[in-house]
Amino acid sequence: MSHLTRYEFNTARRGTRWLLSSPQRLHAAVLSSFPSELTQSAEDGRILWRLDSRPHQTLLYMVSPHRPDLTHLVEETGWPRIREWETRDYDPLLTRLAPGQRWTFRLTANPAQSRRRSETASRSQRFGHVTVAQQTQWLLDRVQKHGFAVVEGKSKEPDVAVQGRHTWKFTRSGQTVTIATVVFEGTLEVTDPAALRFALINGIGPAKGYGCGLLTLAAAR
């Protein structure tokens, strides 16, 4: 069984500001929502999360194979006396996916490619795509294997837009890690329900542990 969770941060609290300043801290906080034996990938998916920042609201979305307990987040970054979190069964949406359906979507991803830095380099490295055109093409190149197509908009261009970009830098094991994230929004059409279902619970692209890869759907208007 899969679960979709929505949690709102109280951005006036010091704990929130500290947590939101690092995807590594957020990653640890998300994993702390489960007993250690439930943090590994399972047949019915892995733990995915995404931070959605709006002018007056900061939301954490999670998809997970097990129901989370966000008590620690509420106590440190929420409104302990008046609000908790919302978790609902994700399976009804997953099971009703069918070819031809259209949905609006939102995805935070890390568009990147692996290549060698030079001809003499022995190992390949991951390099992030820089321009909006490169980042958009990165997504379009992957939609088919994830069971959907991006529909054409009124101008006959793919109905997808980059709505936000951010570069994170943090230290891991003594080294600086840089992750460039992109928020995509658009309209998709289901072509392979099983493949799309897999993408929804296992994510798209790299850096899934740091808030990338979570695709969510909403009814198309």
Automatic annotation (TrEMBL):
<dbReference type="InterPro" id="IPR010179">
    <property type="entry name" value="CRISPR-assoc_prot_Cse3"/>
</dbReference>
<protein>
    <submittedName>
        <fullName>CRISPR system Cascade subunit CasE</fullName>
    </submittedName>
</protein>
<dbReference type="Pfam" id="PF08798">
    <property type="entry name" value="CRISPR_assoc"/>
</dbReference>
